[in-house]
Amino acid sequence: MYNLPGAFPFEITMNTNQSRLLVILALLLAGCNPPGDKKDAPKPQPTEVGVITITTGAQTLVSDLPGRTTARVVAEIRPQVSGIIRERAFVEGANVKAGDVLYRIDPALYQAAVDSNQAALEKAEANLQSLKLKAERYAELIKINAVSKQDYDDALAAQMQAQADIALAKAALQTARINLGYTRITAPISGRVETSAVTPGALVTANQTVALTTVQQLDPIYVDVTQPSSELLRLKQELASGKLKRMGRDETSIRVMLEDGTEYPHPGRLSFSGATVNPTSSTVTLRAILPNPEGLLLPGMYVRAKLEEAVDEAAILVPQQSVTRTAKGVAMVLVVNAQNIVEQRPVEVSRTAGDHWVVESGLSAGDRVIVDGFQRVKPGDEVTPRPPSAQSAAPASAPVSKQQGK
After folding, report:
1. Which of 63, 83, 268, 348 could form an S-S bond across to 290 if both were Cys, CB 3.0 to 4.6 Å?
2. Nearest to 50 by CA among 261, 265, 335
3. Domains in the chain, please, with CATH?
4. Given its phi and psi angles, is residue 22 left (phi above 0), alpha (psi -120 to 50 degrees) or beta?
C-alpha cells in the first residue's frame, strides 16, 4: 500500500521493479509541487490618494437674493391748468434737467387773465390815491369843525377799504401769473423722460388722471430684494451668539449679477430693511442703492443681489468634488484616519464659497479629507496619503454664498 502525496491511500499488486518505478515517479511528481512551498499571493500596495487637512478660517457670509431695480425718484408729469398742447419740447428717452420745458400749453387765455388783473390792480391803486388825499383833507377840516366827525370816519374807512382792494388785486394778479407759468410744463427733477402720452393739439385738463409722461431719476438706482424671514432670523441668532461677526456698523455691501450672468461693475450698499414680513410669501423687503452712471440698470430689471452680511471667523471649507450624496441625499466625505484607513463620514453643508462647500458639522480641524482618487477606494481600504493637486487644494477665493435649501 502506498500513500502518495496529495492522494488517498491505495493498494496495488506489482513486482519489485514496477514498485520501484512507481515510487520514483511519485517522488518526481511530488517534487514538482512540494507541500510547504505554496505561498499566498502578494499583498497589494495601498492606493495613493490626495488629501487636504481641514483648517478653519474667516469667510464672508453672502446672501444670494432675487431682486428688481426701481427708480430712485419718479415724477409723473400732469398739467396744472387746462388747455391745448401747443408744443412737445423734449425727445422721448432723453435725459432732462430739472426746470427744462417739456410741454407748452396755449397761453392766450392765461395771458389775458394776467392783463385783466394787472388793470384791476392799477385801478385799485388809483382809487386808493384819491381816497388817501380826501382823508388827509378831512383830517385838517375836522380840527376846525368844518366837517363832521362821521364824514371824517367814512373817509378813513374808504381809504382802508381801498388798501384791501389793492391787496386783493395783487393776489389775483399773482394767481393769474402762476397759471400763466403753468402753461410751460417743466421737469420737476433731473432724469430720463419716458414716452409722451399726448401730442400737440391734444386737450388736457388740470390735474387729470393720465400722466403726460414720466421722468425717472436712475443715478443712483434702487434694487429691491426679498429675503426669507427664516434666513433673517437665523442670521440675527448667529450674530447674537457670536458665531458670526457683523460686517460693519451701519452699512452692508451689495453686488449685483445681471440677467445675462455678468457682474454689475459698481458695488452698492444696503439702505433700508423692511420692518414687516409679507404674510403671503414670508419674506422681508430689503432696499439697496447702487450708482448707475452709465444708465445700464433700468427700472424693472431682474437681478441677483449678493449681500455681504457677516463674517464666519471659524468656517470649514471642503472642495465640492470631495462631497458625494447618498440615495437619500445625505452629504458624505471620505476621510483618512490616523492608521491611514479610509472612513466614510456624513457632513452637513449649508453654503457655497466659490468651488467649495461650507461645512456646518461632521468635520473638525485636523481631519484629512480625500479630494483626489476617492473613486478608487472604499471605506476600510488602507491608503497612502499625499498632497492633492494644485487645483483641488486651491482655497476658496469667493465669499460664502447662502443657499435657500440644502
Report:
1. 268
2. 335
3. 1-35 (no CATH), 49-59+313-402 (2.40.420.20), 62-71+217-310 (2.40.30.170), 79-101+187-210 (2.40.50.100), 108-181 (1.10.287.470)
4. alpha
- Residue 118 burial by CB count (10 A; 0-12/13-18/19+): exposed, middle or buried? middle
Burial readout 31-44 (b: 16 or more C-beta within 10 A, e: otherwise): eeeeeeeeeeeeee
Task: Tell me the per-residue pLDDT of 135-188, one tens digit each, with 9 for 90 and over.
Answer: 888 888 888 888 888 888 888 898 899 889 899 999 999 999 999 999 999 999
- Name which of 210, 234, 117, 216 is nearest 167 in CA terms: 117
Q: What are the start-end ranges of the E strands in 100-243?
A: 101-105, 184-186, 191-193, 203-204, 213-228
Alpha helices (H) along 142-211: 149-181
pTM over the 0.85 mark: no
Q: How is residue 2 annotated by DSSP? A: B
Are 96 and 190 a contacting pair, CB within 8 Å?
yes
